[in-house]
Amino acid sequence: MITIIIPTLNEENCLPKLLECIRSQTYKNYEVIVADASSKDKTREIAKKFGCKVVKSGGLPGIGRNNGAKAAKGNILFFIDADVEFGNNFLKNCVEEFNSRKLDIAGLYIHPQGNNIFDKIFLGVFNFWTFSTQLFYPNASGSGIMCKKWIHEKANGFDEKIRFS
How far is the C-alpha of 50 from the C-alpha of 111, rounded, in Å? Predict the structure, then answer.
């Protein structure tokens, strides 16, 4: 099983789109945990409406990711930001690739949702840098990291002082 962990803070506009994407997946062996940092909007209510488990995050994304991981039942953790969207076969393809390549951890390439040229250039450079440095400086954006639960535990989770990504 995959546990999808979403750190949130006032994500009532983005979260429903992501949760609809998750609900529409052809791969169904998952649970969703929303680690909320005391949102002042309807984020928590939306998460509960979609059947998500809601845990307190305590603030920064790393704290939320770690608190979500503590509550996870799955042996694969998928950390994703609330403003992400993807197609119906996304989880199926991710799990197949993850298992066929016998990976313990993986990051995702990021593609902009709109047509802003600056977003395309920035994310293109970021994706190229992530790919080209993976053998000597492995890293991934916080908007999409998949790992086996034991790896997360062995690494003592995310650095909770990091504010971004």
Answer: 26
